[in-house]
Amino acid sequence: MKKQIIIYASVLFLFFTAAIIVLQFMRLDMFHQWFPAETAQGTPVETMSTDQDLPEGEQLNVYVHKNDTPLSKDAVENLEYAMDYAKISYKEITKEEIKNLSASPYSVLVLGGEHSEEWPYEEIRSYVEKGGNLYIASRFINPDWNELIGLKDVEDFIDDIYGLTFVKEVFPGYMDLDSDSELFSHSIADVELAESAEVYIEAEDHPILWSNTYGDGNVMFWNTTSVTEKSSRGLMLQALSFLPPTFVSSQAGIKVMHIDDFPAPVPSGTTDVIQRDYDLDIEDFYSDVWWEDMKRIGEEEDVIYTGYLIGTYQDTMDLTSEELIETRRFPMLYFGRKVLKEDGEIGIHGYNHQSLVTADEPIDPEYGYRPWKNQAEMEDSLHRVDDLFDYYFKEEDIHSYVPPSNVLNKTGVRALHEVFPNLEAISGLYTGDKETGAFLQEYEPNSEFPSLYHFPRISSGYGETDEERFVQIDAIANFGVFAHFIHPDDVLDPYRAGDSGWPEMRQSYEDMLHYIHDHYTHLKGMRQTDATKKMKQYQASDIAVTYQDSQIIVQGDGLLSPSTILIRVNDGSLETGSFEAGDVKAFGESGTLYQVTLKQPYAEFKIKDEAL
């Protein structure tokens, strides 16, 4: 009996000892290190090429002329960016070269507004009359041009016109903006249109965009100064597409969703709105409600999340790497692993939420941020958050960075390049106010460190405003990218959420993503790393289009496989259906636009003559 008691006691001792060891093992986070979260391997970028010679036919020739006035320069350069992104080639020409242009249905002369008296009017008029196309990129007043551009009369300029109303569908998805919207502020010419003019867009009952037929040619006229804004690039490109008989533009087909400050420290306590709707504290709300809804919506609407880690909200560097590791266990292990399990990835937002700028670099003082002493201090902070990342995600690398409050400057970029050798993308903003220090970007490599690629975010929030939706559609209309970001704590902030609780914000967020998923099926959800690779390959590819009377021939080198192009057919229609070279379907309600999925690098698409 005594022997049995000793045996039982020994077994109990070993059991409790093992339990203590297991608990200590888990407390030291060894479990997650031995069994890391399953992560996506990334999607390879597949390409296709052809070496066939260009067939006989017409190529689109866009000739661009701009003068030194700010309106002309900014408007035309905005269109040039739009054409670059859509892979439309163009050539800049001088005033003297305008005189020698040959008229063709597939030639377009682009002019910026102001100082129209300097342009060779008679040669331009003759060029249009003989069948050339003219695109006026911004407003001007010159009565000598009235007949050519479709005016019966013109008075003076009118400022402070707001909103947009679409008389005709320019691209599917654009919504009207009321006159109380400040997204576009127009300075326009007070005009009376001729009967030959056809209006596409108005603002406060004034014509903003119209076309005019003159002789055998066509004119497209932008009666506004708002075409200097990035958020008009898609409109400008699509307006251009109405001039030639047929027009082909390219789409990248990318959809990315960022969650800033995620994983991040979770506030304690609750808020009135969360208490009202769920009777939970913030931590349980995030884990049991918010994340579960986000995950479901992502799965249903083809969205993959890239989270951006932040270590602390303190404005000083009091916490060491070890203290960050110890105090951030829950958000890192719970939310970090959840993101990775959903095939997402985690990038860096910062050690804290202080933008990486020094005292002599611009930043809006209303942020109340503490400037960094120098690059060395920035690097120290980045090493600490890198230690935090590496401890919990040993199998992962840091490939993308989002600047806190979207503010960054050259010192911060250099610090990032030094600390994160595998960093591929920096994502600031596509539009914003540069004077406040906003890191405004185009989709392009960094000029100082070409291995770093700028991949700006286009819109933000849970989809509550028409303005945010508009800028989303405009970028899709231009080059087929949806790049959006949200914050988990938006629902906690009375300023950002207002009286809305999570049910209302969730619904608007879901509606926004459902619309994008339902109407722009060619946009594929992906992690930021994959989006960066795909966008770089898209921009590196070459596409050539040959326009013939009865068909369009598209061929390319290094094209994405598959690729998406848009074809506007203004004379006739395109055969729809599934073909060996690609799939063709009508796009929108205009009856002229088609979305084409290229499955081969050489494709022929037949045009049907509606007159037959």
UniProtKB/TrEMBL annotation:
Keywords, sorted A to Z: Membrane, Transmembrane, Transmembrane helix
SUPFAM superfamilies: Class I glutamine amidotransferase-like, Glycoside hydrolase/deacetylase
Transmembrane spans: 5-26
One Gene Ontology biological process: carbohydrate metabolic process
Keyword Transmembrane: yes
Protein name from the UniProt record: DUF2194 domain-containing protein
